[in-house]
Specification:
single chain; Rossmann fold; 11 strands; alpha/beta; Alpha-Beta Plaits; three-stranded parallel beta sheet; 38% helix
């Protein structure tokens, strides 16, 4: 969650396109109107979506999109980015693909933020225990564990972290990685081409605990329009984004992801926050002039979604009291995901 995987996919697509490799991306979320889709589409990469549920619970749709990439668009490589709170992908997606679409080769990369990974491995709780359970299960079933954001750790801490994760997962392929470093992206692509996952064992999975972890996170998607007759719509959007983050931080709410796509008719900017962090990239649009901008919000926070929705609406009402400002809510939905119910769950006969 918030580990830099979308940025890595974005930059990997750019490198592969330069090498004349045809690429595609399937994005995924429990809601709709995905920030990640808009971000990756900006590179000219073809993007398709599985919305309103994870890959495992929408397997037929996922398989259909893979077929479209493969047969209609003759795509060489497809990056499929699953919901950040999804796990048990080997049994519910990888093994069904091996059984029903054996021409598809799959490598499962799990990205783990280096700034929070030590806390999670040592048993401390950023999130409630059920969400912590999902996090560790994701690492357990990975073919490749990508320890991301290594640029944010001092070298001595990074050495300790590498020793810790290699001791915990001695048989995994582990990469230390920065998603905005071209060499690290190249290394990840090379590993994806070289690794040959074998003997993927059944993973013990407590679906009651998994479902509780999904339900512990509140989801909110909003499609907003910011209008300023004096041309300050981008700055207004920046104030809105900062105010939300201050509210979340002030209430010590843990962030799964908090993403924004801010756009006018000429350009689009992505802003992301992770738990306890400032924006991962500066708000590059501050000071840019525009009368109207759109703001798409995708939030996954350990909080009551309706409470979070009310807080955002209250903030919009406050901003709308300012002269020369109008914020229009085109769409806003808040919810908790339903209980995970995968289309398939294939276990090896010897260990069923």
């Amino acid at each position: 969650m918030g580990s830099g995987k979308t940025t890595a996919i974005h930059n990997a697509c750019l490198q592969l396109k330069d090498a004349q490799v045809t690429v595609g991306v399937i994005t995924n979320d429990q809601g709709s109107d995905l920030v990640d889709s808009r971000y990756i589409e900006g590179t000219g990469v073809r993007v398709m979506e599985v919305t309103d549920g994870c890959f495992c619970c929408n397997y037929d749709k996922f398989d259909e999109l893979l077929g479209t990439f493969r047969n209609a668009h003759h795509t060489d490589v497809v990056f499929a980015e699953s919901v950040g709170s999804c796990t048990d992908l080997v049994a519910t997606v990888v093994k069904p693909l091996a059984r029903y679409s054996d021409e598809v080769e799959v490598v499962v990369s799990v990205f783990a933020d280096a700034t929070i990974l030590p806390t999670m491995l040592q048993g401390s709780r950023l999130f409630v225990s059920s969400v912590h359970y999902i996090y560790l299960k994701q690492l357990e079933e990975a073919d490749v564990i990508v320890v991301s954001k290594i640029d944010l750790l001092p070298r001595e801490e990074l050495i300790i972290l590498e020793e810790m994760i290699r001791a915990r997962f001695p048989n995994k392929t582990i990469l230390l990685h920065n998603s905005i470093d071209d060499q690290d992206i190249r290394k990840w692509i090379d590993v994806l081409n070289l690794v040959e996952p074998e003997n993927r064992l059944n993973m013990e999975m407590d679906y009651a605990l998994y479902g509780a972890g999904e339900a512990a996170l509140g989801w909110l998607d909003a499609d907003l329009k910011f209008i300023s007759d004096s041309g300050e719509a981008f700055d207004l959007a920046a104030d809105f984004i900062d105010s939300i983050h201050n509210k979340v931080s002030g209430q010590n709410l843990q962030i799964g992801h908090l993403k924004y796509a801010v756009a006018d008719e000429h350009s689009m900017y992505k802003v992301s926050f992770t738990s306890g962090a400032e924006a991962q990239t500066p708000l590059q649009f501050i000071g840019k002039k525009a009368r109207e901008v759109s703001v798409l919000v995708n939030a996954r926070i350990q909080a009551d979604p309706e409470h979070f929705k009310r807080a955002i609406k209250d903030l919009i009402c406050t901003l709308n009291q300012i002269d020369d400002v109008k914020i229009i809510i085109k769409k806003m939905v808040a919810f908790k995901p339903g209980f995970p119910s995968p289309t398939h769950r294939i276990l090896d006969p010897t260990t069923c």
